[in-house]
Write a sequence for this structure.
């Protein structure tokens, strides 16, 4: 697969660190999709433990709603809730554009006009630090005219070891071109969780396989004398995983008349766009709520404030928020037995992995749960960068949690 050298964005580095930035540390943020917070304790993972023992781990990192891959990867790098950054699901309908976005639409994912906010790689590139990504949601789109100087078109077939070896080769580059902000991504644990459920032996072996890939990365970094003591290793996941199956399923079309109702996305939540205005939407909401015990329908404006899921018309006129394990969709398409995610981020089953080591982070500490929107401003701080304005995360909040654990 070809390496995509960054088209020199008007405001990017063009692949060369500004002279004033070369003493900055390095951040390597690795996403293990669907790695639920408790897997760390449950499964023996010696290389994950290396990071935990050298640094800090969280009891659990709280995702944004919906607890799905695209919204959360983009929240991790922008510090925004999904209603703010615009990726309100893995797929959604935009009534203003009259168009659909889907994570499997290779044209849409490359189109920067879908994305709001400023990803951390753009913050870095604009301020003179080279960024690189071996896969991350939105890294392929020139958001604000900027991509990471080194990036890859998403291809889930690329072997995990090859991803590691590429990142190591980037970190071995001469200091002027060596990326300071690196993201990478692995989907193996999420795949196993969907197919076999969060408590399955398949998840254990997927996690052990990725533990091997992480070990290869850590060993490689330890062999780079200019890098090893100046690098923050940040292990994250986008969300957790819960059991799902046909016995916990509601057929939306058995509950309401679907005439004029567009189901943009179903599953752990349903996003409905309704023809007929606010009055019809309110009637439909009431019909759903009268018949359903295992979830609740809300008009967009009434979605509980804790979910931060009101602002964007892409969310739909009605949102049906299902309880843990329960899903909703067309009656003919019940889910298979296995696992999924997307539910209320306060459910512990949705909590994600967070562990980090690096300069100034004391060894072997545990911090309480925190929201993933605090990752962006924290990384900006680690790299001495000015974060973008108008984010939902708070500068200093995660740093203070880590410092408090060290006392
Ligand atoms: P989910 O359905 O929310 O579990 O999404 C997980 C899937 O998202 C993975 O199995 C990948 O196939 C896909 N995925 C992750 N990152 C990307 C990306 N950057 N571009 C396209 N698809 C991705
Ligand atoms: Zn995911
Ligand atoms: Zn998934």
């Amino acid at each position: 697969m070809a390496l995509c050298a960054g088209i020199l964005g008007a405001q990017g580095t063009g692949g060369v660190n500004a002279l004033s930035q070369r003493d900055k540390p390095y951040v390597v943020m690795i996403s293990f999709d669907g790695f639920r917070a408790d897997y760390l304790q449950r499964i023996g993972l010696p290389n994950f433990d290396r990071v935990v023992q050298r640094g800090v781990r969280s009891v659990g990192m709280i995702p944004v709603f919906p607890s799905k891959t695209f919204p959360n990867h983009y929240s991790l790098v922008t510090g925004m809730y999904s209603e703010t950054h615009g990726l309100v699901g893995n797929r959604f309908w935009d009534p203003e554009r009259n168009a659909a976005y889907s994570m499997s639409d290779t044209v849409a994912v490359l189109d920067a006009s879908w994305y709001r906010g400023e990803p951390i790689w753009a913050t870095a590139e604009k301020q003179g630090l080279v960024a690189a990504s071996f896969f991350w949601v939105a890294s392929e789109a020139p958001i604000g005219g900027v991509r990471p100087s080194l990036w890859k078109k998403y291809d889930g077939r690329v072997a995990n070891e090859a991803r590691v070896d590429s990142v190591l080769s980037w970190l071995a580059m001469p200091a002027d071109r060596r990326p300071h902000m690196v993201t990478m991504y692995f989907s193996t644990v999420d795949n196993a969780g969907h197919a076999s459920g969060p408590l399955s032996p398949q998840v254990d072996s997927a996690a052990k396989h990725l533990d091997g890939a992480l070990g290869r990365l850590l060993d490689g970094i330890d062999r780079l004398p200019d890098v090893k003591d100046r690098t923050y290793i940040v292990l994250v996941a986008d969300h957790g995983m819960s059991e799902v199956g046909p016995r916990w399923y509601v057929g939306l079309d058995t509950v309401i008349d679907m005439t004029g109702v567009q189901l943009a996305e179903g599953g752990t939540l349903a996003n409905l766009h309704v023809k007929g205005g606010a009055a019809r939407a309110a009637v439909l909401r009431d019909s759903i709520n009268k018949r359903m015990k295992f979830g609740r329908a809300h008009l967009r404006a009434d979605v509980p404030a804790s979910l931060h899921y009101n602002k964007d018309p892409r969310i739909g006129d009605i949102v049906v928020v299902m309880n843990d394990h329960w899903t909703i969709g067309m009656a003919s398409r019940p889910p298979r037995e296995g696992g999924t995610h997307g539910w209320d981020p306060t459910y512990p089953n949705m909590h994600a992995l967070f562990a980090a080591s690096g300069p100034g982070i004391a060894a072997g500490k545990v911090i309480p749960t925190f929201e993933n929107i605090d990752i962006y401003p924290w990384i900006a701080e680690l790299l001495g960068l000015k974060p973008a304005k108008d984010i939902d995360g708070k500068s200093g909040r995660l740093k203070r949690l880590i410092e408090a654990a060290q006392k």
